[in-house]
């Protein structure tokens, strides 16, 4: 069923009531006898009484609700006894109507409804009273009872019509009157009738004594007013407190705002309420109670009033004299309004506006403004708390994300990985852990810079994440280590996945204008085979990764054998420590000779370790262990100490040999090394230029800045520097040129087959050429046969070292060897040692 438009319904009801009132009045009331008593009241006095009663509406609060009650029943009942019925009806309508029209300004529909309803009510009272008292004693119990009955019946009638009107207009939440309301109305009416009966009695006895009634009435009215005011204030505060309690638990700013708007409307009976919170926007609430919002703060009511957030309350009552306020009311088509600031300490965080007072009393009062200010203060705190809570919540979420993610790549970090692995283990599904460690990533960082290094990590992350593997989870452990979890069953599947990883990394990344292929070592562990918790799985994947890296196999599946190998290496670390302490570490010396003259120039010191149980352990095995376990500094110092002692001993015996010592790249990062070296040179009184420090080419690219500065400082001491294993690293010519280096040492892999391999010959020729262009001495190591030696001479190499010349020797054996070599080689000819085939012109290539 379609509802009638609100006003139409009320108009129809009004018409019905008016018709009923007219019918009752003209059909029956006009026929009633005149005043029943012969002590008539002059009608102007009655009119005055009606006007007075209507103006003194008293507000009665019952429970939480407030009701207005009129004293109008007093003159009405007095009139029943003392004036004729028609006069009574007319005077009452005139008196109340005048107040209604002049004193309060209601909408026409409300005025019409009230007039119609009052007319019918009065007609009913008059008819009932006359009916009940017909033919009987008017003054006395019967007349009194009749008065009560008539008034109460009329009350019921008006309650019914008022609630019908409310329902039809659709303004209240529910139109019906409650029993409490009816009951309180009945009590008030009964009290009014009592007063009226007293008044009637007084008038009958001596109407001049009615002034006493006026005095008593006025006193009662004042007492009621002041009590009502206190009560109202108290109730408002209590209501405010309850409201504050309620919203302080709410941590959502918008829902707090909505609650504040609803409360503001209810608190001061306003039709509209609007909240401006500059960082959120304008939130408003009208008759339908829903929250509307928009972002344009300048269009808000409050902003249009003053063009800014207010710092004090502004009351704009109906009919205000303030020109600006009047203009604003016109412009916004509001009837009246109160605007109050939302204040936290001295800070204004918003404004609250209510407008269009709904109350019968007309408009907003100063008390309303005060109440609203109190509400705004509570609201400000609640809004601020909610905001704070929202910020904290956002922070917690963010922190939780941060705690589990790597900021650079956005991938989950170690914690995220552990959580995921634990979850998968809980599910009991088999999965593989692939620990991917990029090879030589440090070189990229050092040569291309950290920014490019980071870029590469991000690209690698994206590429790996895009792999098509079942249930793939990619995390970054930090540095260049990534861990993949995938639901793969068995080592074969996992190995294939590792190959996929290798393939996507090797396919190249565009960096800084060049395409860089990335190699990686991948360790694989299988769950649950290799572990039932995240830590042991990771540890085993790590062991496998190290095995892959060490053996250069690319990827390795964890196995007990690998683990044993690791255990062995760990044992080796402890034994090496003991060897260094007990002096069990020895040094061998391998001679270097001038390629052209054959003269013995010096020796290279090589660390030697003879394990009591395992026998000879090559330095290629124990030097990396020393590097990984922090013993490399001590190892280097031990070798240096021995070598310099040996060098000094030979020198004092008249054998002037240069000494070369290998330097681990890690030692170049050791700030104390420089002074320790100077101290050792001084201690053995070896001239610094007799010492050459060999640094591998690959290591030079790590941490270029620092390495270069350290090399420069060492060079300043007077020692020579040599780049070892040239050809195995990626160093650029431009870079080598900047280094304070005296010598390059071609890696033995280019020399071992030099006699038979044409490629090697081409490479060696080119490297010799480069070395000479950079004004460096060129040394070849790994010379195993005389043909190679002859070729090196032909290619212009300066110095040679290798088994054909001599294997590394014990220190004490060097002088004898040196003497033997010098005599047999018959320097500078050396020709007898060379096969005829290789007697090429011995001119230098440089
Ligand atoms: P390296 O510096 O390249 O040393 C030369 C290596 O080549 C030595 O192996 C030497 O014995 C070997 N060699 C020399 N001539 C020939 C030849 O004609 N044929 C073949 N096949 N090999 C030849 P070694 O002594 O096993 O040392 C291996 C590596 O261990 C060295 O390579 C060096 O990198 C490292 N190392 C040795 N001693 C030390 C040390 O005291 N400190 C550091 N940091 N590293 C050391
Ligand atoms: Ca060396
Ligand atoms: Ca070498």
Question: What characteristics describe this protein?
Answer:
single chain, 846 residues, alpha/beta, eight-stranded mixed barrel, six-stranded antiparallel β-sheet, 27 helices, 54% helix, rod-shaped, binds ligand C2E, binds calcium ion
Polypeptide structure, described:
With 846 residues, the protein is of the alpha/beta class. Helix content is 54%, strand content 17%. The chain contains 27 helices and 25 strands. The strands form 5 sheets. It has an 8-stranded mixed barrel, surrounded by 5 helices. The protein has a 6-stranded antiparallel sheet with strand order 5-4-3-8-7-6, sandwiched between helices. Strands 10-11-9-14-15 form a 5-stranded mixed sheet, sandwiched between helices. Bound molecules: ligand C2E and calcium ion (2 copies). Residues 724-725, 745, 747-748, 781 line the site of one calcium ion (CA). Ligand C2E binds next to strand 17, helix 19, helix 20 and strand 21.
Set out the fold topology.
Elements: H1 6-27, H2 43-55, E1 58-62, E2 65-69, H3 73-82, H4 85-103, H5 108-133, H6 141-169, H7 179-206, H8 210-248, H9 253-267, E3 270-277, E4 281-285, E5 291-294, H10 301-306, E6 314-316, H11 323-332, E7 337-344, E8 347-357, H12 366-404, H13 414-427, E9 431-438, H14 441-448, H15 450-465, E10 473-478, E11 481-486, H16 491-506, E12 509-511, E13 514-516, E14 520-527, H17 534-551, E15 555-557, H18 560-582, E16 585-594, E17 600-611, E18 615-617, H19 619-628, H20 632-652, E19 658-663, H21 673-684, E20 691-696, H22 697-700, H23 704-716, E21 720-726, H24 733-738, E22 743-746, H25 758-773, E23 777-781, H26 786-795, E24 799-801, E25 809-810, H27 814-825
Helix pairs in contact: 1-5, 1-6, 2-3, 2-4, 3-7, 4-5, 5-6, 6-7, 8-9, 8-12, 9-12, 14-15, 20-21
């Amino acid at each position: 069923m379609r509802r009638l438009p609100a006003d139409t319904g009320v108009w129809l009801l009004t018409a019905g009531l008016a018709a009923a009132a007219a019918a009752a009045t003209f059909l029956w009331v006009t026929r009633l006898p005149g005043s029943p008593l012969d002590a008539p009241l002059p009608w102007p006095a009655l009119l005055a009484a009606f006007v007075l009663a209507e103006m003194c509406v008293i507000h009665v609060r019952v429970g939480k609700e407030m009701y207005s009650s009129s004293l109008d029943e007093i003159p009405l009942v007095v009139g029943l006894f003392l004036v004729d019925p028609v006069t009574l009806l007319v005077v009452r309508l005139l008196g109340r109507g005048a107040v209604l029209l002049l004193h309060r300004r209601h909408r026409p529909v409300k005025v019409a409804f009230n007039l119609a309803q009052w007319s019918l009510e009065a007609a009913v009272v008059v008819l009932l009273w006359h009916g009940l008292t017909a033919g009987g004693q008017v003054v006395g119990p019967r007349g009194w009872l009749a008065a009560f009955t008539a008034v109460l019946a009329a009350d019921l009638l008006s309650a019914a019509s008022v609630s019908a009107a409310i329902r039809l207009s659709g303004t209240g939440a529910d139109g019906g009157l409650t029993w409490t309301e009816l009951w309180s109305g009945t009590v008030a009416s009964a009290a009014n009738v009592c007063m009226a009966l007293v008044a009637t009695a007084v008038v009958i006895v001596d109407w001049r004594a009615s002034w006493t009634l006026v005095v008593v009435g006025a006193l009662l009215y004042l007492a009621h007013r002041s009590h009502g005011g206190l009560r109202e204030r108290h109730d408002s505060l209590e209501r405010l407190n309850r409201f504050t309690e309620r919203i302080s638990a709410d941590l959502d700013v918008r829902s707090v705002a909505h609650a504040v708007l609803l409360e503001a409307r209810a608190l001061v009976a306003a039709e509209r309420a609007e909240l401006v919170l500059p960082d959120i926007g304008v939130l408003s609430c009208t008759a339908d109670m829903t929250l509307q919002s928009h972002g344009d703060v300048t269009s808000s009511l409050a902003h249009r009033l003053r063009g800014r957030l207010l710092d004090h309350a502004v009351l704009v009552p109906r009919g205000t004299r303030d020109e600006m306020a009047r203009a604003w009311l016109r412009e916004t088509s509001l009837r009246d309004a109160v605007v109050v600031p939302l204040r936290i300490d001295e800070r204004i965080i918003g404004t609250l506006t209510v407008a269009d007072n709904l109350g019968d009393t007309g408009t907003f009062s100063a008390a309303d403004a005060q109440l609203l200010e109190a509400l705004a203060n509570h609201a400000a705190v609640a809004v601020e708390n909610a905001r704070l809570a929202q910020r904290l919540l956002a922070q917690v979420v963010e922190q939780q994300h941060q705690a589990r993610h790597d900021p650079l790549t956005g991938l989950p970090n170690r914690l995220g990985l552990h959580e995921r692995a634990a979850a998968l283990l809980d599910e009991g599904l088999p999965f593989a852990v692939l620990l991917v460690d990029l090879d030589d990533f440090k070189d990229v960082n050092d040569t291309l810079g950290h920014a490019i290094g980071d870029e590469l990590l991000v690209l690698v992350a994206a590429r790996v994440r895009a792999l098509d593997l079942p249930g793939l989870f990619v995390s970054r452990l930090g540095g260049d280590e990534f861990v993949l979890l995938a639901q793969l069953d068995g080592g074969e599947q996992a190995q294939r996945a590792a190959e996929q990883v290798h393939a996507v990394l090797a396919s190249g990344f565009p960096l800084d204008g060049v395409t860089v292929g990335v190699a990686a070592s991948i360790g694989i562990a299988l769950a649950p085979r290799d572990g039932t918790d995240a830590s042991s799985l990771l540890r085993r994947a790590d062991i496998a990764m190290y095995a892959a890296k060490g053996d250069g196999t690319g990827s390795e599946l964890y196995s007990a054998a690998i683990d044993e190998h690791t255990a062995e290496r760990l044992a080796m670390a402890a034994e090496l420590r003991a060897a260094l302490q007990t002096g069990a570490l020895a040094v061998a010396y391998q001679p270097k000779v001038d390629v052209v003259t054959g003269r013995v120039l010096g020796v290279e010191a090589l660390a030697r370790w003879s394990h009591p149980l395992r026998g000879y352990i090559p330095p290629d095995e124990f030097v990396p262990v020393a590097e990984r376990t922090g013993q490399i500094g001590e190892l280097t110092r031990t070798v240096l100490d021995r070598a310099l002692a040996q060098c000094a001993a030979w020198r004092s015996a008249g054998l002037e040999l240069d000494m070369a010592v290998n330097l681990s790249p890690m030692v170049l990062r050791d700030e104390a090394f420089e002074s320790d070296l100077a101290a050792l040179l001084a201690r053995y009184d070896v001239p610094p230029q007799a010492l050459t420090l060999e640094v591998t080419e690959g290591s030079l690219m790590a941490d270029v800045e620092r390495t270069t500065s350290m090399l420069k400082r060492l060079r300043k001491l007077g020692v020579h520097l040599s780049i070892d294993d040239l050809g195995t690293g990626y160093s650029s010519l431009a870079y080598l040129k900047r280094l304070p280096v005296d010598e390059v040492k071609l890696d033995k892999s280019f020399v071992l087959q030099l006699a038979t391999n044409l490629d090697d010959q081409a490479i060696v020729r080119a490297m010799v050429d480069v070395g000479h262009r950079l004004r460096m001495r060129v040394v070849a190591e790994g010379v195993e046969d005389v043909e190679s030696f002859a070729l090196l001479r032909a290619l212009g190499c300066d110095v040679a070292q290798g088994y054909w010349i001599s294997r590394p020797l014990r220190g004490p054996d060097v002088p004898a060897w040196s003497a033997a070599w010098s005599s047999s080689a018959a320097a500078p000819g050396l020709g007898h040692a060379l096969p005829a085939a290789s007697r090429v012109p011995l001119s230098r290539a440089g």
